[in-house]
Amino acid sequence: MVHDIGMPTLFFTLSAADLYWPELLEIMAPNKDLLNDNSPQSYTERNKLLQNNPALADWFFVERAKIFIHDVLKPHLHIVDYWYRFEFQHRGSVHLHGLLWLENAPDTARLSEMAPEERQVVVDYFDKLVSSMNPGINSPPSNIHPSSQKLSKVTDSKADYIKLVNRLERHTICKLGACLRMKNGQLLCRYEFPKDIKEISELLEVASKWKLEQKLAASVGSAALWRWIQKRLANHGQLIYRIAFTKAFIFTTSQRQSGAEPEQQHFRDALDRLSVGQSTMLDYDKMMSRNYGLLPEEERESFKSAIRLFTEREPARQYNIKALTDLRMPVAKIKAKHNNKAAGRGNDQQAMGLDSVLYLSRGSRVMLKRNLWTHKGLVNGALGFVRDIIYAPGTSPENAMPLAVLVEFDKYKGPTFANNCVPICPITSEWIDGGQKCVRTQFPLALSWAITVHKAQGITCDRAVVHLGLKEFASGLIYVAVSRVKSWKGLALEPTFPFFLLSSIKTKKTTIQRIKEEDRLNRLK
Q: How far is CA 360 from CA 180, 335, 408, 453, in A?
């Protein structure tokens, strides 16, 4: 059909409310009133009826779908042709997926060839065709499932519409078992809620595919709007950012990779290309020449004390535990102090960098996780070695938290306590979890023979061994990892990786959006 009549205009899905259709239940159980009973037993009985009468349920859905397509969709949308197929969910409930070809619809197969003005015509067409609104946003969800009401009983179509929308078409909360899925180490909504407000609709080309992102206005109840503000404006501030900042200052000189030598210039240029996914085979070959196993023995020796950067937390944790074990020194298990069980369950991000349990020994390589004295070098990300762990008289590591951990920092410039060491004491973080105040007291330190690339943001390394893996889990991860060092000589890579890891960066949605935003900022200079 696509070959003969062109690209379809719309894709649509029809699902069965077969547990609530009164006409279907009357056919299956003519002498029972199963819809006026909201008990679990009634729901179970309806389920059994569907399981015992699958052919009847399928026939009813097919006939209902045909009538809907013929009497509703065709006359209202001016359908030229259509196609559909039936599928079944795991529990056996039938649903339909279909394609519609509409009269006088724009030819979306030509999007890549169109001028911007033609694409705007496409945007305007779909803006008029597809829209949604909720005139009763603050109305409570109906106690009775709207699909269980016969058409003959509907006296107010607007009220019926509000009941349907508020019961079936609102995404009010994201939760496990429903929409949340693990992606790149984060729980994300599969439907991409909460969505950003968009002032205009636009066509975006992502990975050689076109996507229409339609305008989205805030038309929600006060409680939902406040949740949206908390999640979007408080965390991202996109709208405020665009409105408030009308002038941009662009930094064009790299301070970390400075130098006029040809080798240094090539490193800067390679990083620039890497950031937008334009790495060349020469760049890739140069990176492969920095493979740790291929470096001369003398150069490999210089990387033995270098920090290791991993894209994932677990490999970094395992590397640190092995390095701690290899010291063959007594290890102190330092448990944080909490004011309640919720604080004990909190992760280090909630506690602003403080771990619930910390393992340290003399000789441990550690990183400071708070700014304590920035002028003298005690900053978040400062690296050093643990030289001693001090306990109060009469206490032991089994039953008490240390008074202080003596750390010799690499680049500290202030006064020292003894043997170039600085005493690091416990600090306290507070946060709110489910309306409950949580408090954690712990040392702002972490083992750092290896760290994640995420935690390496903002630090500069003389040398680093970088483990990129086979996939970029977050946009910009590879660039951040490689750019932590000042030159090619400070970089070692382990293990090897395919060129595709670099070339695929340019097709990522976040890369395309960042380049677009950088172009906008350049116009504000």
A: 36, 11, 14, 22
State the Cα–Cα distance between residues 91 and 318, nearest whole angstrom: 42
Per DSSP, which regions of 245-382 are E strands? Answer: 307-310, 332-335, 337-338, 357-360, 365-368
* Helix/strand/coil for 220: coil
Distance of CA 357 to the CA centre of its chain: 26
Report the distance separating Cα 288 and Cα 482, nearest Å: 13
SS3 label, residue 33: coil
User: Following DSSP, what letter does each residue of 456-509 receive, concatenated?
Assistant: TTT--BSSEEEE-TTS-SSTTHHHHHHTTBSSGGGEEE-S---THHHHGGGGSH
Q: How far is CA 81 from CA 63, 98, 122, 249, 283, in A?
A: 19, 11, 20, 54, 52
Spell out the SS3 assignment of 62-82: HHHHHHHHHHHHHHHHCEEEE
Strands 337-338 and 332-335: unpaired
Q: How far apart are CA 422 and CA 406, in angstroms?
A: 5
Within 13 Å and on the Cβ side, how many CA atoms surround 61?
24
Tell me the domains of the chain and their CATH numbers: 1-105 (3.30.70), 258-311+453-525 (no CATH), 327-451 (no CATH)
Instruction: Quote the pLDDT of residue 367.
Output: 94
Give the pLDDT of residue 239: 59
Structure tokens at 48: 């059994």
Close Cβ partners of 67 (under 8 Å, ≥ 6 residues apart) = none
Are the C-beta atoms of residues 513 and 196 closer than 8 Å to each other? no
Q: How many helices (H) and strands (E) does the chain have?
A: 17, 21
pTM of the prediction? 0.55
Query: What pLDDT, on the 0 to 100 scale, is given for residue 152?
Result: 79
Mark residue 292 as left, alpha or beta (left: phi above 0; alpha: psi -120 to 50; beta: remaining): alpha
Please name every residue paired with 85 in a beta bridge, in sequence order, or none if there are none: 97
Give the mean pLDDT per block of 10 residues along the chain (525 residues).
Answer: 87 90 88 71 83 89 92 90 86 85 90 87 87 74 78 82 79 75 77 74 81 67 48 53 76 85 93 93 94 93 93 92 95 94 89 93 95 91 94 88 95 89 95 86 96 89 90 85 94 91 89 87 83
- Structure tokens given for 461: 């390394």
